[in-house]
């Protein structure tokens, strides 16, 4: 028995053929059981019609039916077991197919993670334009900001003009003697400067005096 098991494990084709043979044998037994049940039903019917002891015939028929149901269930379990073993052996995947499926699963998990990261970066905007940006006018906020800048610039220009007019009015109100005094002081300082440079011997002066 050990040798046969080792041979079957080494030869998967022989193992599959044995499963097929078992499955066919279990199906044949189930067919034979069906024919036996038909014959038993006919025999019970004829005996029940021809005999006077009908109560005994009914009791024997009940016992036979119980045994027949048990045998049918047993045969059905055998058929299903053989069918499952043959399907499991015939649907075996190779190592290459398993590796390919594993790689596909990894790629799918990576794609799901990438989509999840991309969704976290997406921000919801209250204003969603339906047209191209070249065909859209400036938003109201930018227009209000530009208007505020224009008003601010006009206010600064008006304040500078007011300050210049105030300085001009103050200069006009000063007496004439103030202007003449400032002019005389500037001219006297200019006249004294060449003399001082001549005394000190400034090389940049026009008339140098050498001792």
UniProtKB/TrEMBL annotation:
Annotated Basic and acidic residues bias: 199-211
InterPro entries: ABI
Region named Disordered: 192-211
Superkingdom as given in the UniProt entry: Eukaryota
Alphabetical list of Gene3D superfamilies matching this protein: 6.10.140.1620
Task of the protein: Involved in regulation of actin and microtubule organization. Part of a WAVE complex that activates the Arp2/3 complex.
Family named by the database record: Belongs to the ABI family.
Protein name: PROTEIN ABIL5-RELATED
């Amino acid at each position: 028995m050990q040798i046969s098991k080792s041979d079957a494990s080494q030869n998967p084709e022989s193992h599959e053929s044995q499963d097929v043979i078992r499955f066919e044998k279990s199906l044949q037994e189930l067919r034979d059981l069906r024919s036996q049940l038909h014959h038993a039903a006919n025999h019970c019917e004829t005996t029940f019609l021809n005999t006077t002891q009908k109560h005994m015939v009914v009791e024997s028929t009940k016992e036979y039916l119980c045994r027949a149901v048990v045998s049918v269930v047993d045969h059905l379990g055998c058929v299903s077991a053989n069918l499952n073993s043959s399907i499991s052996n015939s649907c075996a995947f190779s190592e290459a197919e398993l590796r390919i499926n594993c790689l596909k699963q990894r790629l799918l998990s990576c794609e799901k993670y990438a989509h999840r990261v991309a969704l976290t970066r997406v921000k919801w905007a209250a204003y969603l334009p339906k047209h191209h940006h070249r065909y859209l006018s400036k938003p109201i906020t930018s227009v209000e900001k530009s208007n505020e800048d224009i008003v601010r610039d006009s206010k600064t220009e008006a304040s500078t003009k007011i300050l210049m007019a105030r300085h001009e009015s103050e200069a006009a109100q000063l007496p004439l003697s103030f202007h003449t005094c400032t002019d005389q002081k500037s001219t006297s300082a200019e006249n004294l400067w060449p003399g001082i440079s001549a005394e000190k011997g400034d090389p940049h002066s026009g008339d140098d005096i050498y001792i």
